[in-house]
Amino acid sequence: MQKSTASARSVATARPRSGLRRVARPGAGRPTRDQARERHEQLLASALDQFLDRGFERATIEAIAASVGMTKRTVYARYPDKSALFLATVRRAIEQLQVPEEKLRALDGADLESALLGLARLRVENVMTPTGLKLQRIINTESYRFPQIFTMSYEQGARPTVEFLAARLRRETAAGTLAITDPLLAANVFMSMVVGGPVRFIVSGQPLAPAAAEARMRFAVRLFLDGARARPGAP
User: Fold this and answer.
1) How many domains does the chain have?
2) Residues 6 or more apart from 156 whose CB is under 8 A from it?
3) What angle do CA 192, 193, 194 make, to 5 degrees?
4) pLDDT at 163 over 70
5) What is the DSSP letter of 68?
6) Same domain for 111 and 223?
7) Do 92 and 190 belong to one domain?
8) Band of the pLDDT at 205, cuts 50, 70, 90?
9) Residues 6+ apart with CB under 8 A from 153
């Protein structure tokens, strides 16, 4: 009886299972594309914090990966080394701080002084965000090691705003309101005037009071316009 039972079990085990369908759980154990994107965003956000808190040298891939529940192998599959992760982290922060095109277009219909003041506010407000502060401090502390992050910050972050302003200054000069021979240079100088000062205070940990920051920006805008206005009889 035991022999026949064992034989039956053997036959049952050997029997083809063509009639059975293995039902796999869709995506079981694997994140969806949206989940993977969100996890990557978490990785870069955590990396930004750790590079800021520990500096590039002391921050480790292992610690960054562990902070978001990843293995270092997963991070290395995307980034070959810590430098590549650092640059990707900075690039993401810069992209987050880009002034949206629709906000620039909204300023284009304003009078010149209001448009200049609006641009100044947008840039200073960006720096005052948590990501903006972290980015500025990392640029200040790590640019000697990665000089390309200055270029990245300008090309991806500031340049669209500067080019928008240069186009407006060019039109105002053509209309006779301003007398600017190099609109792109003037736009860069303007942004340095109205943004550079407040940013240094903010990044140093001694932010200006809102009223003081506003007064400083208004003064810089008027000073710029006084120097750039077309004057009757001037060559």
Assistant:
1) 2
2) 91, 94, 95, 98
3) 100
4) yes
5) T
6) yes
7) no
8) confident
9) 90, 94, 135, 139
Cα distance between residue 38 and residue 36, in whole Å: 5
Does residue 105 sit in the same domain as residue 220? yes
Residue 174's pLDDT band, with cuts at 50, 70 and 90, is very high
Mean pLDDT across 23-44: 72
Q: Does residue 148 sit in the same domain as residue 199?
A: yes
Q: Please indicate, yes or no, whether residues 44 and 88 belong to a single structural domain of this protein.
A: yes
Residues 149 and 202 in one domain: yes
Q: Is residue 130 part of a domain?
A: yes
The helix/strand/coil state of 178 is strand
CATH number at residue 86: 1.10.10.60
What does the alpha-carbon distance between residue 65 and residue 76 come to, in Å, rounded to a whole number? 10
Helices (H) and strands (E) in the chain, counts: 13, 0
Is the separation of the CB atoms in 227 and 221 below 8 Å? no
Residue of 28, 16, 67, 60 whose CA lies nearest to 45 = 67
Q: In the structure, what pLDDT confidence band is assigned to residue 187 with cuts at 50, 70 and 90?
A: very high
Same domain, 108 and 174: yes
Q: Flag whether the pTM goes above 0.85.
A: no
Domain span holding position 63: 34-96
Same domain as 148, residue 212: yes
Residue 15, pLDDT above cutoff 60? no
Alpha-carbon span 44 to 85, nearest angstrom:
8
CA distances from 192 to 123, 131, 164, 216 (A): 11, 20, 15, 13
